[in-house]
Design brief:
alpha/beta; seven-stranded parallel beta sheet; 11 helices
Amino acid sequence: MKALVTGASGFVGANLVRALLQKNYKVRALVRPSSSLRTLQGLDVELVQGDVRDPDSLYKAMEGCPLVFHAAALYAFNVRPRTLLYEVNVEGTRNVLEAALQRGVERVVHTSSVAALGGTRSNEPLDERVEEPWLVGDYQRSKYQAENVAREFASKGLPVVIVNPSMPVGPYDGKPTPSGRVIVDFLNRKMPAYVNTRLNVVDVEAVALGHILAVEKGKAGERYILGGENLTLEQLLGKLSQITGLPAPKVKLPYGLLLLFAALGTLVGSSRLNGESWRMARFHPYVRSEKAARELGFPVKPVDGALRRAVSWFRENGYVSRGY
């Protein structure tokens, strides 16, 4: 069976393409004309050019593909102009699902994020039952609104399943994503201090498998959290220290001090430290993946192996300065 993967050259997309090929699916990979194909090199896939903001390109790309995995998204904070997040993440999702509806696609998996669950002040993990999330930035709002679009199309009869990965780590993070930058900055000794935020870290290969399980076993209109380990950033950095032998940063910044730096970052247009990334860090939730484990057979497991593979991939592909 042939599957179309949007965002195929991205982090989750590239791992999903590999997982599909391993399970003998035929893959058509939708990539933008400007996309780097580094993470797809050597794979037996059919490449087609298109953009989620171009409905005609999506309709053409879906010809002969009964399955669609919509993994394309803009994963960034403090985006300028702000409307770009909504054009790609929300209207792009609408375009993909409208094309799938017109094509009579048999099954769609929409890649959302735990960001759509919103923020929390509590250490209690969130799950799929969150209905009125506390959204603390444009990225979270765009992912939440995109989920609403997916549910709208499910109500029209399109068999679309929603998956919500947490913070994926592993190989083929070409940009790298904000998740991967944590590892790259650690390896390059560019993280002299940290804020002890809550995280849920998941093996990106498990996330890729979760997409396939969702298309095979998921219920239309339902969301499934694809998570791994609930960790503080301090614990994550400790794991990286054990894997690499590099020392973890010892200075823990208070949120109040970081807020001052974030305000400055917002003014200068920083994509790393700004008001939105500060709010995401301050109120990021722990999550639970029992529903995905129970209904899909999703493997919830430790992330040490994924972190080792990520470290190796970044080192082997030129992201780490010599000597580290």
